[in-house]
Amino acid sequence: MSGDETGYCFDTVFAVPPTATSVVVAPGAVRDLGALMSTRIAGRHAVIISDEAVFGLHGPVLQTNLDTHGFKTDVIVIPPGEEAKTAVVLEMLWQRLSDLGTQRSSVIISFGGGSTSDVAGLAAGTYMRGLDSVTVPTTFLAQVDAALGAKTAINFSNYKNLIGVYKAPLFVLADTELLSTLPKAAFMSGVAEVAKAALLKGGSFLEWLCAQAQELVARRSPEALREAVRRAVEFKLAVVETDPLDEGHRFILNYGHSLGHALEAVLPSGSLSHGQAVVEGMRFAAQCAPEGLAALQDHLFSRLGLEPSLMMTADASRKTDTEPSRKTDAEPSHEADAEHKPDSEPAGGHDPAQATPQIRIDDAFIKALVAAMLHDKKNRGSEQSLVVLDAPGSPRLLTLTVPELTRALSRFLQMSADTKALQE
Ligand SMILES: NC(=O)c1ccc[n+]([C@@H]2O[C@H](COP(=O)([O-])OP(=O)(O)OC[C@H]3O[C@@H](n4cnc5c(N)ncnc54)[C@H](O)[C@@H]3O)[C@@H](O)[C@H]2O)c1
């Protein structure tokens, strides 16, 4: 596949399964899907798997385009968000694929955010031992992260992403125009992932993001969106290529996610968006890094509108229920994938800014966070592996014992409380 003057294109080859995935990043690319598929796919039966909200907004354009290029299309609609990542939905997909007479020459098109690509990718990876698939991510987070790297999953037995396979689609088509309908909270989760990638990469990516923060966040300008996705894709593919099965270097993509996932697991559902939780996780990691990193990172976050969102208080009367509300991810690592908490947000996403949690710092809360962080299988015994940055572009793994982690968390939460007190 080659790029054109309006778009960008990257090719990468995954070691497993033996197939190449190309990623196209271009505004309006959905209108080229039929043409792209015609040249790459012999069969003419396409099954679109999409969530009901996304298909309502953008489905007709996609379907019409495929019709025009001679594809017979069927549509399977799944619930929006985490509700789609269940064994029940997966079984429903297998049943519907069977009812539709899906064959080995058929192609599955995943059309939605990371939840859709996770379950649709798993269906594509397992039905008839694997069908060709194409991913069209419709959230910012999915375009810069979830749709890349070939991981698929559903949640099971109260664990995030417990069941899944590696399944690389034939190509990923990231149409940045689709992001125009994305609600703010969902958009900001993508911004947090772009910030993570820029900090891990450093150099010109970080400089560009700092300079273009307004264009990207306040204006969602088409050029800034395309460039943000292009740079984030380039970064993630480079990491994944070195470690496709997540056995080593890919762990750096976990930056901000160790504490981020623990906060999502421990706080009441919907208290923080995934993006807010990851930002807190990156702020915590920066506190464990050499001096100067935190100030630089805070400057970037402030330019991007990624403000601190944990409101700590010593006032017991405002304490939230901080009992862990679910087990954390079975699969540890992760890119942002690992572990959003299943919840029941309305389509388009709950806006956590409306319900910033007031949390009392006490031993029970810190203990719950430590337990959630240690749950990660990548941790050895009772030690916590944390990705920290020595400087932008220089990530490394820091190993903390439980007492060290507990002290670091107490310091971080106290600092958040002090910041809040200063603001009041
Ligand atoms: N496999 C991976 O590598 C990987 C990486 C990161 C995250 N993930 C997974 O991704 C999931 C989260 O995905 P997500 O944040 O992309 O969102 P999502 O798929 O959960 O969707 C969130 C909401 O946004 C709506 N939406 C999607 N596109 C829209 C659009 N263009 N306009 C308006 N509304 C739209 C959906 O209907 C839904 O209500 C989690 O389950 C996480 O585990 C996987």
Features of the shown structure:
424 residues, two-stranded antiparallel ribbon, alpha/beta, Rossmann fold, 14 helices, 2 domains, binds nicotinamide-adenine-dinucleotide, Dehydroquinate synthase-like, alpha domain
Structure description:
With 424 residues, this protein is an alpha/beta fold. Helix content is 43%, strand content 17%. The strands form 4 sheets. It has a 7-stranded mixed sheet with strand order 1-2-9-6-5-3-4, with helices on both faces. A two-stranded antiparallel ribbon has the order 7-8. A two-stranded parallel ribbon has the order 10-11. Helix 3 packs across helix 4 (114-126) and helix 6 (184-201) runs antiparallel to helix 7. The structure holds nicotinamide-adenine-dinucleotide.
Q: How widely separated are the two ends? A: 55 Å
**CATH-defined topology of the largest domain:** Dehydroquinate synthase-like, alpha domain
CATH architecture of the largest domain: Up-down Bundle
Indicate the radius of gyration in whole angstroms: 21 Å
Summary of the model, kept short:
This protein has 424 residues and is α/β, with parallel strands linked by helices. The protein has helices at 33-40, 52-68, 87-99, 114-126, 140-146, 184-201, 203-211, 213-218, 222-242, 257-266, 274-287, 293-304, 363-374, 402-423; strands spanning 8-13, 20-25, 45-51, 72-78, 107-112, 132-137, 154-156, 159-163, 171-174, 311-313, 358-360, 384-391, 394-400. Helix 5 runs parallel beside helix 9 (222-242), helix 6 runs parallel beside helix 11 (274-287) and helix 6 packs antiparallel against helix 12 (293-304).
